Amino acid sequence: MNTALWIVQILLGTMMFLLGIMKIFLPEEKLNKFGGGSRHPVALIRFIGISELLIGAGLVLPWLTGILPMLTSFAAICLGIVMILAIAEHVKYKEKSKVFTNIIILFLAVFVAVERFVPLH
User: Which of 8, 69, 91, 92 has the smallest number of CB atoms closer than 10 Å to its CB?
Assistant: First the structure.
């Protein structure tokens, strides 16, 4: 089970980290090509990018280093919230193909959040 968790954490963490980098550093014109960029202010897209970057780091680093491992579960919960909001966004704009991807990511985030849960002492 631990190996499966690490695989999911690394995949989700890498994906979120790269998406965050893209949303933070791509010029506005290129953001529009990836969808959603023209619907929202650039500042909001950059904020989402920073959030995704932090979630990506939070999915891997705390558990890897042993420093505050509860943050891994918290990052997975945050990812789940982002995916719920993304599902609502894609349903609103009738982008059904993207909803399925968000649902899969949501389930993987819940898996990590539950299995890596560390109660506060």
Answer: 92
Q: Which residues contact 15 (CB under 8 A, 6 or more apart)?
A: 56, 105
Residue 102: name the closest of 75, 70, 79 by CA: 79
Angle CA 37–93–29, to nearest 5: 15
Distance from the first to the final alpha carbon of the chain? 24
Tens-level pLDDT at each residue, the chain (121 residues): 899 999 999 999 999 999 999 999 999 888 777 655 578 888 998 999 999 999 999 999 999 999 999 999 999 999 999 999 999 999 998 988 889 999 999 999 999 999 999 776 5
